[in-house]
Amino acid sequence: MSAPAIFASLLDFRRLDQAATGDSFLHRLDARAKVLATLAFIVCVMSFGRYEVAGLLPYFAFPILACAVARVPLALVARQAALVLPVALLIGLPNPFFDREALLQLGGTVISGGWVSMVSIALRALLAALASIVLVALTGFPQICASLERLGMPKALAVQLLFLYRYLGVLGEEAQRMNTAYELRSNGAALTLGHFGSLAGRLLSRTWDRAERIYLAMCARGFTGDFVTGRGSRFGLADALFLAAVVTASVLLRTQGFVHWLGAVALGGQP
Amino acid sequence: MGVVSAGALAWCSRRLRQRRDDRRVPLMGVLGAFLFAAQMINFSIPGTGSSGHLGGGLLLAILLGPEAAFLVVASVLIVQALFFADGGLLALGCNVFNLGFLPAFVGYPVYRLVAGQSPAPARATAAALVAAIVSLQLGAIAVVAETVASGISALPLETFALFMLPIHLAIGIVEGLVTAAIVSSVHATRPHILASAPHTGASVAAPAAGILAAALLLGCVGAWFASSAPDGLEWSIARTAAAADLSQRASPAHESLARIQQATAVLPDYGFAGESEAASRPDDQRLGTSLAGLVGGCLTLGVACAVGIALRFRPGRR
User: Fold this and answer.
1) What is the pLDDT of residues A184-220, one digit of tens each?
2) How far is B172 from chain A (nearest CA, A)?
3) Is the dihedral of CA A67, A73, A75, A80 positive or negative?
4) A positions 45-64 inside 8 Å of B (CB)
5) Torsion angle, CA of A172/A173/A178/A184, rounded to 10 degrees?
6) Which of the residues B41, B62, B196 would you substitute to probe the A interface, choosing the one with the greatest number of A C-beta atoms within 10 Å?
7) Which of B42, B64, B109, B230 lies at a CB distance of 3.0 to 4.6 Å from B94, suitable for a disulfide?
């Protein structure tokens, strides 16, 4: 990714953050239900065979509907999720070269298995990315960390994640400013390795000092060594129903040939 | 590999909590953000015209000690996977091991071995170079091992390794130079930072080696349930696949492993690049790509979009 693209994704990160402060039915659900539902969704999507394309399509309904119900901008989520496509396509790239066995015939064109599996990889990557970003947009990172901790993640890691999340924006913007400053002073020359070393070294020194100030600020506010990572929220009936619904739908879509039935009916044949 | 990484994380977390060094907590968090931000800045690699960015595992280990560094790198990878769709959730276990565990628990002891306490700049540079090369070569080997052990790839081991190792040698050199550059810059401006870093050298080497061996073994076994094509392989895969003939050769070992996997795996069809069940499940394949299937899929999607639009523009609080 180019520098502007990376910094643009930082801005999207902030917007995702904001989306999580919304107030809809989905926002109000217990974070654990949402985390587990996302997990079930991803597991089902990943469990398809390598040539599966059609069966994956209905799964896009989940993020679409979730964004619609929660009033989260779908474009924002889709933009973030689409970042995964270049990597996924690259991983799938060898497939059309090696899997030339014809698999599908559409009219007069024969499509080989290699292309199908490449598309399948891309779709699955996209679905997994959409799922995780929708989760973040609906739940907010601190809540996700809290729920993961209640589901068993070690506390030191949870605290680390929360701090990282809190200061990501701050340091990202500082790095962006340094990058811009360098570009303005370098007359178009690319950043060399040596200069990056000093640049990063300066950023590191400032970061270290900042950490000192943060620690002193925490002590001044009564920090005694223990962290509270989130309010307890109760796992209620609505949460259980939501989780059950998502898991059931995901599993049914995976195991029943719903799409083929629908398509066959639409094409006028027998189901 | 997810299991291995998770176990290592739990162990490190416990060790860190036992230390009860509260000052380190915000420091680790902020250094994680620093790593994230520093990785965003690309620099040009002399002589090649391509650009690279900092990896950072070794640097963090020098500054924080291995356990904390491992935790910080893991957190950065987790956030990248969740927020930035970068690296993929499924490759997370492998990435945490390759990019976090290896530099912290193998690379760093090597660094300490070569550099000793408070090294002169030249010696520190040499040490960083050696350590980075070692940890990246091991990382490359680990990736090859993980890919092969997962059974998803018919890429021949030798050719794959032949491409991975030289590339990662070059990456290791760059990483070592960048790490050394940053360390020397910090040494010039704030030497106390380096002086306050925990010096856990030789005492970590022996358990690290043991853990590494056990982890690689576990990884090969555990890879039945985890792993997709790991990160950073695209170039190697494309080149290797181009060099080799990739018709599905089912060797006896592969077949028996596949049988065991079918019996024990929760997700028999798991895999990004897919398993080789092409011969055994022809119906699924045809179902998956039949025209009816595609029509049905598009119809479902269309209905979902329509419902979504209707919901989106329903009256109510915005």
Assistant:
1) 888 878 888 888 888 898 899 888 888 889 889 988 9
2) 14
3) negative
4) 46-58, 60-61, 64
5) 130
6) B41
7) B230
